[in-house]
Amino acid sequence: MTLRASLAALAAVLLVGTVTACTSDGGNQGGGHGNEWLAPGKGQATQLLNFSEGGHDAKAKYVAFYGFSGVSKGMTIAPDGSTYALGQRLVRLKRDRTLSTRLDTGDSAWGIALLADSSLVFGDNGQVKKIDPQGKETVLAGASGQHRTAGEALPSSAPATAVHFTAKAGPFGVRPDGTILIADGDTLWALKDRTLKRLYQLTAKSADGLPLFLAQNNALDGTGTAYLSPESDETDIDGTLGDVLMVRSDGQLGKPLLPERITGLPGTPATYRVRWLAGDGNNGVFAHVYDKLGGNGAVVHLHSGKAELIAHETEGTASNKPCEITRPVDALHLPCNLPQAVAYRSGSLILGGLANYVLQIRVT
């Protein structure tokens, strides 16, 4: 995906065990002083973690770095409030702001989703695997060996472990009936009862004539509708909001309704590029977007035919400058760049990736 941020290299040191960020009563809202961490109120944002050199949570950087600092490959939030971030390692950030490394995945893991039994599923070098709460790994789908090439003919359904995936195939959501959705290059698969069903396969090309593929910025809402954001193959350019495709649980295709303007966001929404998508738990999606020049980073909420601006970067923010938020601020006037990946649960957005901090934005 297109990167606005160029991150300085950090020391690659693994801190074994659990790291606790500086914290106090997370139930307070607004204001603050000293070393207290204060939760944001509705419409506010704050840094859940700041693990930069000299940052409030610098001592946690050697765990946080591997999940939140580089390019995000997936992020999800569990019912207990824990955020799981997939980078070079799978890192868990609990509600009390303690961090731990759940799994060392290296560079081969893509996509993450949470099952009802608290197991996590993720893509690993062309296979989809499950890790249960006890740490046991199981292959759920994908044949071992040679990876397929996008564009190949595929069956409409097949035994889950008989299909060869692309190298970066990864899950991104679980429907209410337990079906796992997998983005596999040019194809959307549904996995249930050890069977893969092909839901959709991209055949269109970009305006430049390049093949399109599905990256990690896809989402699933609470009704089981998938939101896909096709990107140009080879150029690594994010797709636009106007190109987002919906695949409903009954197989019907559609597009989110976009207004010509969104209050507070300059320009035409359909032309904004999509950095990440996250389901809202109901019938809509949050989209992390930016304009064609790489500015005006924002989060918008698309639902019920409406579009609402949730967060917006202040003009002039730069990813190469230190940024520290010591108390909750207005989410519509953020002094920091929005991190790459977005996840939502229980009224709050968590954003991490391509930044040395993690943001929390209170939506409701």
Brief write-up:
The chain is mainly beta and 364 residues long.
Task: Please provide a written account of the structure.
This protein has one helix and 29 strands. It is mainly β and 364 residues long. The strands form seven sheets. Strands 1-6-5-4-3 form a five-stranded antiparallel beta sheet, with helices on one face. A five-stranded antiparallel beta sheet has the order 26-2-29-28-27. A five-stranded antiparallel beta sheet has the order 11-15-14-13-12, with no helix packed on it. Strand 12 (170-174) and strand 13 form a beta hairpin. The radius of gyration is 19 Å and the shape is globular. 45% of the residues are buried.
The profile of the biggest β sheet is: 5 strands, antiparallel
Q: Give the overall shape, derived from the CA principal axes.
A: globular
The total of helices stands at 1
Poorly predicted runs are 1-17, 22-34
The count of β-strands is 29
Order of helices and strands: EEHEEEEEEEEEEEEEEEEEEEEEEEEEEE
N-to-C terminal Cα separation, in Å? Answer: 30 Å
Q: Helicity, in percent?
A: under 10%
> Mean pLDDT, rounded to whole units?
88
Strands ordered across the widest β-sheet: 1-6-5-4-3
Structural class given helices, strands, pairing? mainly beta
> Cα-atom Rg, whole angstroms?
19 Å
In what range is the share of β-strand residues? 35-45%
